[in-house]
Model the fold of this input.
Amino acid sequence: MIEMSNKMEENFQRVYTALANVSVRIQDLEARLKEVEKQINQHKPEAPADLDILNMQQSLPLKSIDEVTAFENRLSQNADEYNKFMLCISRIGGRSAKENLIRIYRTIFSNEVAKQSSWKGLRNHFKINSLNSILMAIQATILVQHQFTNKEFEDITKEWFRQGGQRLNRQQKDPEEMNPQAI
Done:
């Protein structure tokens, strides 16, 4: 009887510990969600002129790391530019979160930039996860349209930039065959 009581207490402790971990994780997710909502509300587009959006779309994809850095600086310093960017990428769409994200990356970054970049900047590559304004806008856009975890966002981003060299090689071999909007 005492042995059964001890087992029940051990099981109760495991359940209690698991519940405490889940509670902490939920609080963390709620804090992140509030931060994203705050960013979305702070940078809501005020229906900028379609001409401005068209001009922004024509300047994409970014073809060099210098262009990426300059674009990031422009977005972080100018709320109007950030709003235009949010509207521009929110119009790209896709059937799933992954397809939407890949289509956004294909619109924003050239394969040359993707080849020179990685998530953490390893092996002297450009560090993509340091692009706060660009990534925040992309993540906020996808969260509004799809259910998406930070891990999924990070994994798809890492994979897309990792394959940049392969896409660039295919594009250089047969530029006619490469469709920039294809997955």
